[in-house]
Amino acid sequence: MAALTLARLQPKLLAPIELEIGAGELVFISGPSGAGKSLLLRAIADLDPSQGEVLIDAQPRSLIPAPEWRRRVGLLPAETGWWADQVGAHFAISPAEPAQASAMATPAGAVDATPTQGGFPDEVAQVKGDQLGITGLARLLARLGFQSDVLDWDVQRLSTGERQRLALARLLVNGPEVLLLDEATANLDPSNRAQAEQLIDDYRRQRRAAVLWASHDPDQRQRLAQAAGGRCFVIEAGRLQAESPA
Ligand SMILES: Nc1ncnc2c1ncn2[C@@H]1O[C@H](COP(=O)(O)OP(=O)(O)OP(=O)(O)O)[C@@H](O)[C@H]1O
Q1: Separation of alpha carbons 208 and 120, rounded Å
Q2: How far is the CA of 34 from the centre of ligand 1 (A)?
Q3: How large is the ipTM?
């Protein structure tokens, strides 16, 4: 579980921001295209320089090594990055398990896509450091509508929505304490969007992760914030302010 605090954080082009997101809290940000939503998320993730401080559970970012910070504070970018030819190469696999993706393929229907009681922790409980047991990964992929043979696929063939769902899986298997989501479901059809929303919600509640989510979709913001008791902010003229109810 982790809370996220922005203490006069000043990303490029934005006024300093004071914001506290509690452990397990969902906060949306919106704003017109070019308002600075991605800049804010990137500044929190320490991918762009910024002024001010960010704290995770009261620990200042400035005292945490950058790789550790980026593991604990996970960013799902709007445009996902892929650095290897095959999907499976982007997932860290436990050396105790077969390294080849094909060994992870399960017969059609063999993956239990039904969350167990308590759901998500079973999947992340398989994570050892940065490494993941096969069962957990297969179940996570199944919850996003994939069979395990997706790990054998060439990245080149992935549709935009497949990239988005696989990038979400890649983010969650690392077990970040805070989620920064940049248009996490923008390219998904309603059914896949609902699956992704449910997975994110399970993760937030069960891991007590602070979630900061940039979304252009007013219905999504209102629906999910209301269900989770979350808050909505908007960036306008370089300032973050509470979003007025529609
Ligand atoms: N490295 C940079 N240097 C200068 N300006 C930048 C840089 N990166 C982004 N910008 C500009 O900052 C502004 C905010 O960009 P940002 O990507 O945060 O917008 P956004 O709110 O996420 O928009 P969208 O909803 O279209 O994704 C844009 O005008 C963009 O062109």
Answers
A1: 12
A2: 5
A3: 0.94
